[in-house]
Amino acid sequence: MPFNIYQFWLFYLVVFLLYFRLPHKLQNRAILLASYVFYGFWDYRFLTLIAFSTFVDFYVARAIDRESEEVKRKFYLKLSLFTNLGLLAFFKYFGFFREQFEVALNSLSIPISLPYLEVLLPVGISFYTFQTLSYTIDVYRGKTKAVDDFLDFALYVSFFPQLVAGPIERSSRLIPQVVEPRPKSPYRFEEGLYHVLTGLFKKVVLADNMAPIVNDVFSRPVSELSGFEVLFGVWAFAFQIYGDFAGYSSIAQGISKWMGFDLMWNFRMPYLAINPSDFWKRWHISLSGWLRDYLYIPLGGNRGSSFFTSRNLMLTMLLGGLWHGAAWTFIVWGAVHGLILILFRYLPGGQKDSLGDISAPRFLQAFIFFQFVSLTWLLFRAETIGQAWEMLLLVFSDPRLSDFSIYALANILFFAGPLMLFEVWVEKKQDLLAFLSLSLWPKVLIFLYVVASMLVFSPLAKQDFIYFQF
Amino acid sequence: MAMLQKKHAIIPYLLGLFLLLLLDLGFSAIAPRLSGNLEHISLLPSLIKKANSSPGPKIIFLGNSLIGNGVSQEQVRKELKSRFPQTDLGIAKLVPDGTGVWDWFCVFNDQVLPRVKDETELVIGFAWNQLSDVERLSSKRLGGHFCEFGRLEELVSLGLTPIEGRIDFVLAKFSSIFRNQELLRKRILDLVIPFYRDETRNMNSRMSSSRLAPSEGVASAERISVDLSYTVLDSILAKADKAGVRITIVAMPILEEYQLDPKLILLLESRVRFLDFRNLDGLEESHFLDPIHLNAEGAKIFSQAISTQLELH
Question: Complex ipTM, two decimals?
Answer without folding.
Answer: 0.85
